[in-house]
Amino acid sequence: MENNGKTPIACSSCAKAKAKCDKKVPCTRCANKRIICQPRTARRSCDSGSNSKLERQPTRSSGSSTPQTGVNSDNSLQWGSAQLPASPINYGTLSSLSGIPTTLATDTASILDILDQPMQSSDLAFEFDASHDYLRTGLTQSPPNTRVSSTPAMQPFSEMGNFLEGIDYSSGGGNTSSSAGGLHNSLDFNMPTMPNLPFPMDEMQGMDCFDNYPVPERVASTSSRTSGPISSAHHSEMGSPSRASSQSSRPPSGKPFSDSGPCPYSVQEHKAVIGAQEGWSSFRCNPTTDPSACPKTARIHLEGLEQTLKSQDAWQQRDLQPEITKPASDQYHIAIEPFSSYTRDKLLAITQTFLHKALEIHYANYSNRSSVEYMEGTGYIILPPPIVLEHFLNAYVRRFEPYYTFIPAGFLKPNDLMQEGNARASSILLLLMVAHGAAATPTMEARYLTSGLTEACRISLFDIIEKDIELVQNLIVLRCGLLFTTIAAWSGDKWHMDIAMGQRGMYISMLGHAGLLEFRDTRLSIQNCQANPEMAWAKWKEHEGRSRLVSSWVLVDQELSLFMDIAPMLSITNVNTTMPDTDQLWQAKTSADWLKAYEHATGSSCKPRMSLCDLFRFFMDGELANPNVHLSPIQLRLLLHPLQSLTMHLRQFLSCFPDGSNNRKGTRAMTKSATRARLEEVQYLLRQWYALAGRCSGDWTDDYPATSANLVMYHLINLNTTICMPEVESLARRDPGPDPFRGSSSLQSSCTDDVGDIFFHCSQVFRLLRSMPEVVRPPWWPAAVYRAALTSWMTSMANAKSRSLLSSLGREANQPFAIDTLAPDHPCMVRYLNTGEGQPMFSKRDGAMVSLEVPHNILLLCVELLDEGPTTRFKDGIQSKLGRLAERWKNWTVE
To answer: What SUPFAM superfamilies does this protein map onto (predicted)?
Structure first.
């Protein structure tokens, strides 16, 4: 019962907190704290009219009193309607944490009242970045206006449920194939594939992603002052995904998506992220922008994370298909232990402090609001439900563990991890795992979860190290540093990519300070192992974990060196840690299984425990050519690090010699010739590595991801010995002209002299990436496509003056064949490499062949190749860069 705008008793929130309530609707305390104010009726009142208020009505009169939580009385912000679940989601026993109120969806009456107001479709605006339209139309037209929504264009939260439930977006619903391989075929989030099916009004009313929780005052005030497109500078100042931004990023009710043009990204991206793409420090094939002019995105990610985790029904999942979380192969299957309520509560409390600290840091430089005022305005967050967290952890182990093995016995135990050592460090590690798994989920809330958690964990990780310097020796902290580096380096966000490249040196130095790079004799006697297998197994796992941590850092150092075109930071002479042991030992489920495998491995003399420095020394001396020597995929991959380091140093040295006649004088010509001879020696060592890998890998099965990744790296390093990628990118940034190789005679000479080898290595990169299951491709696979695309494109242009890329050897000798579908030992491939017979071509997804004599077609093929696999922000950025390059050079013709 209400009396003069007041209720007879305190509201539900004040009653739970035992605080004074002025009994207004909403009360002053709830309005200040920006929480939902739920009025209560006196228990002794059994008036049926009070119960009628709990029933949801289809419409509400404009004069009815609507609870408002932290929003000004401005009527420009309207609440939309949304469907709430029939039963509340189980979020764990959050109430067990003192001081953290848990206002879940159990009391839905007032929430339904708030959501009853109709959505105003007249205020909606819908803009897409249509810069990729020309990729769908064969580049016959110039790209249209590339304006996008000036506020964070968050997709509706219901997309996450549809994605995990396997709903086919292209057909408007229905279940998809239950296999992991069929996931890609059924889930296409590209807007050009959306049919012209208008969305009913009742569906459109539930699409606003921020209709389910209050709008922060800082957002509401900004939105009320803003109208129309916003510049990048103002965009950086706003930063938060407000309700107004959500409304401006969706189509009006009843209109199909196609009316607004196709969307180039599978997930509509924030304008600030897109605007900073051409400011990346690497992958610069187009004219770049001033890095200082790039909009900052850290606050945008954090506020997007805050809004996502505040939503009580952002992760409404009902029937998560087990097939989606099923790995593509049992060979690298890792089971996930379910989260206990205690682990979830503890993780939630620590995540709350991480997020508040990060937001406070990023708001510290703003004088218009103090950190204290902001912290008072932030509410409490809710972690995604356990089924979603486990889905993200499954995605993490599929995409990370095949290449950087950290989880022993094939069982990830988050509950035990939270009990080990530093709780904050363990929480950072778990949150980074979740962020890594969510990176490939094609929904906007998943991207905010990834980028926001990455930023919050970065700040907290640096904070705990600064407060306790002894944590530099903590293995969990060093694993956090590795996981952050891999997430941020391949995030597709300039802010995180630059920070990852800047901070990797700090974490690598911590390895040395912790003594992990020194040699330690970790051999265990068989007698001690048999006497106490459990203790011996635990001790072995501790030593093996150190070895695998160092090895993973070596792999990451090599990947960043290769794809970012920088020198490695780790020196092979300083890496004296013992090499990782066999995967059979690491994946043993019990101590008895481990002891049996350990006895077998110890009795074999062909598998010595050695350091990377020792292994490379044996490789250079030819001792690994013994047929009895067999190396694991990770050991083969580690051998590529010194070869990549040597190639990079020689390439940097050659870049000091400018093109021109002066190179032919005196000692300069001799030095340049000697450097090229050293590169030929590297090519010889790479051939030795290939022979060793072929013997160790048996029949070259491509179903093991680490083996395919090793071969991709091998082919890319081979391309580095022939082509200098920074020179290729420098040429690509020029304005198209009849002579693109002016001033780059050495690059043109390399492309024409080694055309066969270049196309061979590029084609093998494409073949191997296609052979890998889409859900387990490494995070850097778009970068591999980028390098192969630019190299083959440049080689095609360098040979454009010839009537054919190959000399005429007769009609049968020039028969076309798809070079990117053949293994290296295929007869057609062997004839082509040895005698030049045949006309190589690339193949499309539908089997059609693409001529290598048309450079423009090569770029289009690579853009199409990037449509495969799970979408990530990094993949979208690479695809955008290649698409813009193809548009800029589409009219190029040879003189």
So the answer is: Zn2/Cys6 DNA-binding domain
Q: Which of 103-112, 373-382, 607-616 has the lowest mean pLDDT?
A: 103-112
Tens digit of each residue's pLDDT (9 = 90 or more) over 109-141: 332 333 333 333 333 333 333 344 434 334 333
Specify if 448 maps to a domain. yes
DSSP string, 244-294: HHHHHTSPPTT--GGGG---SSSSPPPHHHHHTGGG-SS---S----GGGS
Q: Are 305 and 355 in contact (CB under 8 A)?
A: yes
Omega before residue 26 within 30° of 0, cis: yes
Separation CA 37–CA 352 (nearest Å): 22
Number of domains in the chain: 2
End-to-end CA distance of the chain: 86
CA distances from 599 to 193, 525, 535, 543, 586 (A): 57, 10, 16, 17, 14
Nearest to 266 by CA among 124, 380, 159, 355: 159
The helix (run of H) or strand (run of E) holding residue 849 is strand 849-851
Region of poorest pLDDT, from 317-326, 545-554, 727-736, 879-888:
317-326
Calculate the alpha carbon distances from 69 to 33, 359, 521 in Å.
Answer: 8, 21, 63
User: What is the residue type of 176?
Assistant: T
| 328-338 per-position pLDDT tens digit | 444 557 899 99
- Tell me which residue of 204, 221, 202 sits closest to 77, measured CA to CA: 221
- Residue at a domain's end among 458, 491, 513: 513
Res 147 pLDDT > 80:
no
Is 802 within 8 Å of 779 (Cβ atoms)? no
Instruction: Look up the domain containing 168 and give its range.
Output: 133-513
Measure Cα distances from 866 to 461, 512, 666, 862 in Å: 33, 38, 47, 6
Distance, in Å, from the CA atom of 206 to the CA atom of 540, rounded to the nearest integer, reads 54
As a whole number of Å, the CA-based R_g of the chain is 29
User: 118: which DSSP letter?
Assistant: P
Lowest-confidence region among 146-150, 360-364, 586-590, 790-794: 146-150
Residue 787 inside a domain? The answer is yes
Average pLDDT over residues 787-796: 95
Residue where a domain terminates, one of 454, 479, 513? 513
Whether 352 maps to a domain, the answer reads yes
H/E element holding 29? helix 28-33
- Residue reference for tokens 């002299």: 753
13 confidence band (pLDDT: 50, 70, 90): confident
Per the prediction, the chain carries an average pLDDT of 73
Residue with tokens 């000004």: 72
Q: Does 200 score more than 60 pLDDT?
A: no
- Report helix, strand or coil for 412: strand
| Alpha carbons 822 and 216: distance in angstroms, whole number | 57
CA gap 328, 220 in Å, rounded: 46
Say how far apart CA 212 and CA 110 lie, in whole Å. 11
State the pLDDT at residue 30. Answer: 83
In a domain, 623, yes or no: no
